[in-house]
# Entry
Amino acid sequence: MPWLSKRERALFITADPPFQRPEWAVGQLVDHQGRVYRVTRWVELRPVRLERGGSVRQWEVWGRPLSGRRLRKELSGAAERMLSEE
# Structure
């Protein structure tokens, strides 16, 4: 089912809030399990209770896979920006 691979999916769960992880901000590219994804959103989950008391907040990071063509275009654009800064 090729259409299924282009859909947004949950990538991972983190206890770090979005403002502490700019590398995972919406719009950024992340490598997850050997594929490159564009982060599309963060979803706050219910707090997880800890055995010794208290709780921890958690977030799901969602993304959409990039095609090979789109990845090449992103890399080319990033390289051009780096070269123009010198």
Notes: The chain has one domain: 2-85. The beta strands are 9-14, 29-32, 35-44, 48-49, 55-56, 59-65. Residues 68-85 form the longest helix (18 residues). The CA atoms of residues 5 and 65 lie 7 Å apart.
